[in-house]
Design goal:
Blueprint (H helix, E strand, L loop, with lengths): L9 H4 L8 E7 L3 E7 L9 E11 L9 E10 L8 E5 L4 E3 L2 E6 L2 E4 L10 E4 L2 E9 L4 E6 L6 E2 L2 E2 L10 E2 L4 E6 L6 E12 L9 E4 L1 E2 L1 E6 L2 E6 L6 E6 L5 E6 L6 E6 L2 E7 L6 E5 L3 E7 L1
Length: 295
């Protein structure tokens, strides 16, 4: 069982009772940073069989001046009727545009150590915007739970933040975005693309879409192609897209250190070895029908 208190010393930190998650893979490349984590043990075993999250930090996306974050979650419950919800907490009430929440933060935040403002406090004016785009589940139910009196609303009750004099920064938030599948299932995947920018930036955000694939979940974000291999998918992956310009391909969660053939439209593009973290990266001058096959 998980203790009801936080780790108190080094002995507690090293105790298996507190081991609620683990990092299965981490790789930093010139074009991206990738991490795969397992948080299954943070949940009740009678409700959840698996929770794994992949985070991909795209350092440069063509046509966008900021990094872009891709979040891919795989969740397997013990009962299809158990509701799964992907949450993103916000400082201000977002607006929904199609499958994308737009969060604009222009809060003025006080840094101090007292419940009431003092002349020595430091104030920070936020001026940022975040696009949170839901690509999976398909036909997902998107909602916002929050507002005054419902900032931390759970099962018909609000759990408001209690400000203390020791709190150096006061920014409790206004609520949360919830994304849930429209139909019950034992296994669900969630795929989100987060694109941050300045509040004043009205440039179109990077185009993101799921692309046709076999053996994994694939998406395109600008000039990047990301493929998350399914567990037990076998030795081959396939995906296809139309694109005239160059592309950066990153195939993730492959067998580590194994050599793969990369084909496009049936012709060999090359042979590449998956990294020690299971990442296979290559470039192409255009799109097509791609196959990645282990030798």
């Amino acid at each position: 069982p998980v203790p009801a208190y936080q780790p108190r010393d080094l002995k507690d930190v090293q105790d298996e009772c507190f081991a609620q998650g683990s990092v299965l893979a981490y790789e930093d490349r010139p074009e991206l940073t990738y991490i795969l984590a397992d948080g299954t043990r943070a949940y009740r075993r009678d409700k959840l069989k698996l929770f794994q999250r992949s985070l991909v930090f795209l350092k440069k996306v063509h046509g966008w001046k900021h990094p872009v974050i891709v979040i891919f979650d795989r969740v397997v419950s013990t009962n299809p009727e158990f509701k799964k919800a992907w949450n993103l907490h916000t400082m201000q009430i977002p607006r929904l545009e199609g499958n994308t929440f737009v969060i604009e933060n222009e809060c003025r935040i006080r840094f101090g150590g007292d419940l009431k403002a003092t002349p020595t406090d430091y104030w920070c004016q936020y001026s940022g915007k975040l696009y949170s785009e839901t690509l999976l589940p398909r036909d997902a139910q998107l909602s916002f739970v929050g507002g005054e009196g419902k900032e931390f609303w759970v099962n018909g009750r609000n759990y408001p933040t209690i400000l203390r004099e020791v709190d150096y920064i006061t920014e409790p938030g206004i609520g949360r975005i919830e994304v849930s599948p429209s139909r019950p299932a034992l296994e669900d995947v969630f795929l989100h693309v987060l694109s941050p920018t300045e509040l004043s930036d009205d440039a179109p955000r990077p185009q993101a879409r799921v692309i046709e694939s076999g053996g994994g979940t694939a998406l395109r974000v600008g000039n990047h192609i990301l493929v998350f291999r399914n567990a037990g998918a076998g030795t081959a992956l396939a995906y296809a897209l139309e694109q005239d310009g160059p592309l950066l391909h990153s195939v993730l969660q492959l067998e580590r250190g194994k050599t793969y053939k990369v084909l496009r439209d049936g012709s060999l593009l090359g042979q590449e070895k998956a990294s020690a973290q299971g990442v296979l990266a290559f470039t192409s001058d255009r799109g097509g029908a791609f196959h990645v096959v282990r030798e």
